[in-house]
Amino acid sequence: MIRVLVGLTLVGALALGAGFYIAENASGPEIEIIQPSRLVGRSAVFEALVTAPGGNLTSLDVIIEQDGQRLALYSLDTPLEGEVRQDGPDRIRVTRRFDQASHPELVGGAARIVVSAARPVLFGLREATATTEHHLEVRVVPPRLQVVSKFHYLNHGGSEMVVYRVTPPDAESGVQVGDRFYRGYPAQGAGVDGHDTLRVAFFALLYDQDLQTPVELYATDEAGNEARKTFDHDIFPRLFRRSRIPLSDRFLRSVVPPIVERAPELADEELDASTSPEEIAELYLFINRTLRQRNRETIAAFAGGTSTNLQWDGPFVQLSNSQVESGFADHRTYVYDGNDIDQQVHLGFDLASTANAPVSAANTGTVIHADYLGIYGNCVIIDHGMGLQSLYAHLSAIDVTPWEKVARGQPLGLSGQTGLAGGDHLHFAILLQGHPVTPMEWWDPHWIEDRIERKLREASELLNP
Predict the structure, then answer these.
(1) What are the phi and psi torsion angles at 273 (to 5°)?
(2) By the 8 A CB rule, do 342 and 334 touch?
(3) Helix, strand, coil proportions of the chain in percent (round to 5)?
(4) Coil, strand, or helix at residue 287?
(5) Running DSSP on this structure, what letter comes out for residue 462?
(6) Cis ω on the peptide bond leading into residue 168 (within 30° of 0)?
């Protein structure tokens, strides 16, 4: 019996020793710091994932160290303003927003975040610990903005340009007009050389924005610090026409079926001579509302691929020997069978010449679209750089291909009545960061000189005397 007890005691001691050995060598929780990545600004978010069996932790501490100071960000014992939530059976997510108000000791310069965590092992008799650290840079000074150009006059529905400086030069910047942002581009791309802080931004007050809409320079750096600065500008009102457009059954039967045939959204629609006028009218409303909006979103997306260099030179050219049949931002009410059935805003100029008239590039640029595009029919879009693009719609033929360089006056195709067009004409539009603006200004050599060329020339003379 004594031998048995001794044996059991020895086995127990060996098992306990093995347990302690395993506990001493057990790995601690897995720690992954999600953010911040490289920079911390005046306001930042800490976020980390901590993984342990069952998400069970005995301790979790997060600090930020800088110049010998240890500043608490989060602790299980004193959670401060942090948040912990389950992110799976074995993982928790820890987040904490911090800024100069919560941590006024933080200054610009190097720092590191240290995360320490422990989990229970051996039935809670021991702990397995882990520590992860992440080095970063603190930036607490917001970008600086300085306006260089003078005299900014903005017509309602029209465009303008500002020349300015931004520091640091890697900050994203531009002009904020209400809720619309117009990116600034390095001035070297506009021919003003030698200054990496100098920027050029084209911006607009859109037809549907209020005349009191705030206009200001905006910048944000990589650390998320923001800066805003107002600058001198005058805004002038413009009257936009209103018109009533009668829709006949003949017109609807001529334009609706070809669009339905090529619209993926309407692939299940089958039209023939027996299709009732009411069904055709319903399809027209879908085209004039939903498809129009989707086509506009497609067009706006092309702004993301604009060149950072100005590719155009001098005033844009109107379609040769053409008359303006419909103006920019005309408010149209569509009338069918004596009833008002829809309202839309026409965001371009309808230019009429002769049937199948040659259509040329209004200025130098790069073709970024040359294909069918819903209500616009056969359509060409040219990028002129720095967010400026021109659009040519309803063409009967297209003679250019995407990414082809074109010169001002180079043939693009022939006018026509493809898409939602009731007769042969060219729908011409100017787009700024994907937003339609009036083309009238861009056709005007005096406006080009005063609004753009003068400012670029003066900036170059000022900075390169």
Answers:
(1) -65, -25
(2) yes
(3) 20, 40, 35
(4) helix
(5) H
(6) yes
**Structural domain boundaries in the chain:** 28-138, 144-238+451-463, 242-437
**Is 362 in contact with 390 (CB distance < 8 Å)?**
yes
Distance CA 343, CA 244 (A): 9
Contacts of 315 (CB under 8 A, 6+ apart): 363, 442, 443, 444, 445, 447, 448
- Closest residue by Cα to residue 72 from 131, 115, 117: 115
Tokens 């005058």, residue located: 234
Q: In angstroms, rounded to a whole number, what is the distance separating the alpha carbons of residues 86 and 54?
A: 10
- Contacts of 339 by beta carbon, 8 Å cutoff, 6+ apart: none
Q: 105, 71 in Cβ contact below 8 A?
A: yes
Q: What CATH class has 242-437?
A: mainly beta
Which of 381, 368, 389 has the alpha carbon at shortest distance from 432?
389
Indicate the CATH number of 144-238+451-463 among 3.40.50.300, 2.60.40.10, 1.20.1530.10, 2.170.120.30.
Answer: 2.60.40.10
Per-residue pLDDT of the chain (465 residues; tens, 9 = 90+): 544 444 444 444 444 444 444 445 578 999 999 999 888 988 899 999 999 998 799 999 999 999 989 999 999 887 667 888 998 899 999 999 998 889 999 999 999 999 999 999 876 688 899 999 999 999 889 999 999 999 999 999 999 999 999 999 999 999 999 999 999 999 999 999 878 999 999 999 999 999 999 999 999 998 889 999 999 999 999 999 999 999 999 999 999 999 999 999 888 888 888 899 999 999 999 999 999 999 999 999 999 999 999 999 999 999 988 888 778 999 999 999 999 999 999 999 999 888 999 999 999 999 999 999 999 999 999 999 999 999 999 999 999 999 999 999 999 999 999 999 989 999 999 999 999 999 999 999 999 999 999 999 999 988 776
DSSP three-state, residue 82: coil
Which among 297, 299, 304, 349 has a CA at the least distance from the CA of 327? Answer: 349
Query: In whole angstroms, what is the distance from residue 460 CA to residue 452 CA?
Result: 12
pTM attached to this predicted model = 0.84
